[in-house]
Amino acid sequence: MIGVSFLAFTDKTGAPLPWRDCSGSNYTIPSSGQMNFDPLTVPVDPSATDPSKALRDYYDYIRYTQSTQGHLNSQGLCFVSRQYPAPGAASSSQ
After folding, report:
1. Contact, 42 vs 53, CB < 8 A?
2. What does pTM read for this prediction?
């Protein structure tokens, strides 16, 4: 996943991957035509060399997303201690 963009998914031929809907009226497809993940307010810069400043690729996106999950077994909020450099947060090597 290192080097793979999460902002515009493509199939194996490089064609844009369109949004799909298997839920009927339970889900509204985003208005953009190409499937992607939205980083919301987290900075993105594929050419960045410092992962603490911006998400660079799908690898960083996955690590950031997993590290920011705020509930432990649905039992309330838990403290996030990132084990790697991440935008907008202190990192920990513990």
Report:
1. no
2. 0.70
